[in-house]
User: Fold this.
Amino acid sequence: MDVYGLLGNPVGHSLSPPMHEAAYDELGLEARYATFEPDPDDIDDAIHGADALGIAGLNVTIPFKQAALEIVAPEDLATRIGAVNTIDFSGSGPPTGYNTDAVGALRALRDHDVAIDGERAVVVGAGGAGRAVAFGLADAGATVAIANRTEATARELADEVPRATGHGLADLEQLLPDADVLVNATSVGMEEDATPVPADALHGDLAVLDAVYRPLETRLLRDAADAGATTVDGAWMLLYQGVEAFEIWTDRDAPVDVMNEALRSWL
Assistant:
């Protein structure tokens, strides 16, 4: 039996186990998905121990994404993003590290028929999720404007991302009227009914992805729907980062509909 799992601290809130277990059951795979919560000082031992024990693959979440980068052999995108959220142990050499957050955002948008290549995208937030989304959109051919509460951080990230510019949040009023895609990569809207985006800057030609998935309908998405924009809730990004990990580990097409149903049944 293959064992996969999630490495983080804490992990009790994770929705990955039911999503992946549903996929194994659907395809008749002899596999299970477990959660592991090592002490933050023991991440090196945890990853090497998983390799020694024959764990087939791991997802990685807070606070280990950056530390994992230094322990595995990261793919180019994970290196540029500066974080690993998926580890594959199937090779003969050191485990390979991936970042599926970028692909998760892209696949979520494409699932809703949102064009990316040649489009103008705005990413709100320059933290871990913002970095992943900005690199993913740029690699897919979009020009990217990164808006962050601390403008200097946005400008630093923009220096790394092709065709990107860095801005403060106050610039959103000027950036959004000409934008095609907007991604909120901050946690604003998770704990309170708030949005980092001025509602009057939203418009009907915009596609809006909010990485927040609890609640599914954030204030940003309500405002976007009122403006006639295409809306994509954060569960789609969560789903597709998991789908990408599943496909890396198993080399099989994931049962996306089954995983989506399992995920949303827990939200």
